[in-house]
Each structure stands twice: as C-alpha cells, then as structure tokens.
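From the methods appendix. Each design record in this collection lists the tokenized structure first, followed by the designed amino acid sequence. Records were kept in a plain field format so they could be parsed without special tools. The example shown here is representative of the layout used throughout.

RECORD:
FOLD TOKENS (226 positions):
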C-alpha cells in the first residue's frame, strides 16, 4: 500500500469547526429588547447603540472571517457607531441616518451568525442560541428601519397620525415578523408597507429553513450522528 493510499484510507481526523459561542449574544439581545420595550429616553437610546454594537462585535468574533478582515470590520463598526451616536442628538435626519446604520449593522450580524451556524457539521445548543439571536436581531433591525422612515418623513410612519416611538416601532416590527398583525399599528406609506411585507416574508423563510434545519439536525453530546 502506497503512502498516499494509506493516507486516503484513514478517516479524516481534522477537528470540526467550532460552533461558536452564542449564549452571551442571546442574553444581550434579550436585554436590548427588554430595555427598548420597558424604558425610554435619551440614555436608553445610548444604551441600545452600545448593545447593538456589542451584538455586531460578538457576531464578528464568532465568525470565520480572516483575522485581518475581521479587524477592519470591527474598526468600521466602532467608528460608525460613534458617529451615528453623535448624529442621533443633532436632528431628525440624523436620527434617521443613525437608525439606518443600526439596521444595516444588525443585518450584517445576522449574516455572520447564519454563515457560522451553517459552517459546522454537528448542531449544538450554541447553534440554536445563534438562530434564536438572529431571529431577534431581524426584528430589531427592521424596527430601526421603520424608525428611520419615520424620522426622515417628518415623524409620520403609522397610519391615522399615530405617533411612533422606540417601543411602538419594535412592537410593530415583531408583530409583523411573526405575522401576528394585530392591526392596531399599520404603515401609512407605500415604502413602509413594502418594508413590512419584506420583514414578514423574511421571518417566515427564516423559520422554515434555518431554524427547522437546525432543530432536525440537533443532537445532544455523545449521541451518534444521524
């Protein structure tokens, strides 16, 4: 038997890709959700920006990006978040731009989490935590986009002149994401409605693809692979 044949006959003993650590990320996302839902004011917005930045940094840390690329992205996220935090306190337009930035950063975090989750062969609880975190992040990201539309449109996002706030945008976002649609808040403009439709579709596709895939492949440690 030649060396090459002998090598090919041996099982692949290379270590599997680490599933990453998403438990802390889930804790931060739940904390950010509760903070937005139960409190308000200027310092709440500052805390939300800090928490969202931490979410993005943790997602990058858990990603499989090259070290140099990850370092550049971390620098961009930190610098951008600092600038957007300053813009938040200037004008309504500044708040709109800051919300767009927050939404984009959060969706990038979702992409990083999904990529890392699908890169492993064995599904663990960490992957489940990552999927739940990504689902929550989608809801908060769209809430930021809805808020941005409201700020850039003179404060008018909801129909019948209903006022928008961090709490109402988040409430509207998650009732849309889960397709509950109570109807007490609806988007007034065509662009806001299109964004709501996109979020509803995203939520359903996410659940029936990634989450279902992970649940069916989940196994406890020590259980033989399916």
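DESIGN:
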């Amino acid at each position: 038997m030649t060396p090459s044949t002998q090598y090919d006959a041996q099982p692949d003993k290379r270590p599997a890709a680490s599933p990453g650590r998403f438990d802390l990320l889930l804790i931060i996302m739940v904390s950010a959700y509760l903070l937005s839902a139960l409190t308000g004011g200027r310092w709440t917005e500052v805390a939300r920006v800090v928490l969202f930045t931490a979410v993005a940094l943790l997602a990058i840390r858990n990603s499989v990006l090259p070290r140099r690329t990850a370092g550049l992205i971390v620098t961009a996220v930190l610098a951008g978040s600092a600038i957007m935090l300053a813009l938040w306190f200037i004008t309504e337009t500044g708040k709109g731009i800051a919300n767009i930035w927050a939404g984009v950063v959060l969706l990038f975090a979702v992409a990083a989490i999904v990529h890392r989750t699908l890169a492993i062969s064995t599904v663990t609880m960490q992957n489940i935590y990552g999927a739940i975190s990504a689902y929550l992040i989608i809801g908060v990201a769209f809430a930021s986009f809805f808020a941005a539309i409201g700020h850039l449109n003179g404060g008018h996002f909801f129909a019948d002149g209903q006022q928008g706030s961090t709490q109402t945008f988040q409430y509207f976002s998650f009732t849309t994401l889960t397709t509950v649609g109570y109807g007490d808040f609806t988007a007034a403009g065509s662009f806001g409605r299109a964004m709501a439709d996109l979020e509803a579709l995203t939520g359903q596709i996410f659940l029936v693809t990634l989450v279902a895939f992970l649940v069916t492949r989940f196994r406890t440690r020590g259980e033989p692979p399916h």
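APPENDIX NOTE: Residues 19-217 form a domain with the Helix Hairpins fold (CATH 1.10.287.70).
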